[in-house]
Amino acid sequence: MNHDKLITNIGQLILPKRSSQALKGETMKHLTVKEDAAIAISDGKVSWIGSSQEAQQIHAEGRIDARGLLVSPGLVDPHTHLVHGGSREKEMTLKQQGVPYLEILKQGGGILSTVEATRQASEDELYQKASFHVERMISHGTTTIEAKSGYGLNTDTELKQLRVTQLLKETYPINLVSTFLGPHAVPQSFKGNEDAFLDSMTLLLDTIKEQDLAEYTDIFCETGVFTLEQSRRFMEASLEKGFGVKIHADEIDPLGGTELAAELGAASADHLVAASDEGIKQLSESDTVAVLLPGTTFYLGKETYARARNLIDSGASVALATDFNPGSCVTENLQLIMSFAALKLKMTPEEIWNAVTVNAAHAIGKDDVAGSLEIGDPADIVVWEATNYHYIPYHYGVNHTRIVMKSGQILWERKEGNAL
Ligand SMILES: O=C(O)CC1=NCN=C1
Ligand SMILES: [Zn+2]
Q: Cα(60)–Cα(62) distance, rounded to whole angstroms?
């Protein structure tokens, strides 16, 4: 057989285990790593995997010498607020003065100031800005991204954000999963009338389904935002309409969003910094993936991180994400989150790699096309400027990618001799 491409001389090839459900507890500790390997690609898919020795018998049009470097599947970022207008650098001073996140929101800042900027921005301006961030994510090794709306808080702007995500899907050859986060905050015009606002966002579900603008819905279940009961109502309505559901749960106050996610069979429960022991237990007995966002905890200057060790050791499945957004975690770099997972969540390198590949793919229903490299899988591949898989979480705050491929096509490559 003549393959299209052959990557030879791979120091370590990371091969996360593909399974029908996310890796849970003990199984997260295992990571298959093939030393001195090679991988072939045909028609955009993985067509052969073997040793460098065996690769000598393999015929391919194009060859890439990996020079003994590390190779992995493309990274999966299952929680971003990618499409938004404006930025919130001016809030840094308030944060430094210790003004809490929810207080800034209450004063009309935070999410609500991004809402203002997003409402003002044209669809094309939102698209141009989001494109810039998508390209930066790709250059950092991410080839599958979840993108939420939630900065419109009115029909027109929520649909505008969702249309921008659709346009990004048509422009970039990456996997893009769209989530409707209409109930992200309560706009000033509905202050004191939260239920009426939630009803208006629930009414949008039919249109979003008809226009196929989102696969999931999400809600910010938090003090001063949406209650547990309001979250239940919105999530049940979403399930009824055929959406998958997600929830920003127990980020700051323990309202019980984690338990609700497990009860309703949510695809994921995200944040979980204040998740209760009961919530962790129920999550570990469910198929709901715990998506942890240590970059947000760091950025908000908090001391307490999500209890990743309790989650994994109690049998839950854990994924990691950037939570890229203009206010509480301003980074597209999932590699940095891998470092926070090691430094602050005490996750092992094996758990971390599973959390940014197979488990992250399960959290957004893309486990059939992302997060692993088995024969027939899309050849979403990263060649790293590192020789082993421990190195990426260890050396933080920089970009370690050398080559980023989606379906066998090189999307980004470090220029020769360019150490930047
Ligand atoms: O602050 C933001 O813009 C994003 C966010 N939503 C809920 N937590 C953080
Ligand atoms: Zn978020």
A: 6
Strand partners, 180: 217
Burial level of 173, CB count in 10 A (0-12/13-18/19+)? middle
Short-list 324, 390, 406, 386, CA closest to 352: 390
Residues 6+ apart with CB under 8 A from 219: 181, 183, 184, 226, 230, 231, 234, 235, 247, 248
Q: Is 150 in the pocket of ligand 1 (CB under 6 A)?
A: no
Q: Which residue, among 375, 377, 376, 342, has the nearest Cα to 356 in the 3D structure?
A: 342
pTM, to two decimals: 0.98
Residues in contact with 238: Cβ distance below 8 Å, sequence separation at least 6, in sequence order: 205, 217, 245
Q: What is the pLDDT of residues 284-313, one digit of tens each?
A: 999 999 999 999 999 999 999 999 999 999
Query: In this structure, how many other beta carbons lie within 10 angstroms of the beta carbon of residue 362?
Result: 27
Q: Which ligand is nearest to the CA of 251?
A: 1
Q: What is the 219 CA–ligand 2 centroid distance (Å)?
A: 9
* ipTM over cut 0.90: yes
Counting ligand 1 atoms within 8 A of each CB, the residue from 323, 329, 330, 331 with the most, and so the one to mutate, is: 323
In tens, the pLDDT along 47-84 reads 999 999 999 999 999 999 999 999 999 999 999 999 99
| 33 and 72 Cβ atoms separated by less than 8 Å | no
Secondary structure of residue 336 in the 3-state scheme: helix
114 lines ligand 1 (CB under 6 A): yes
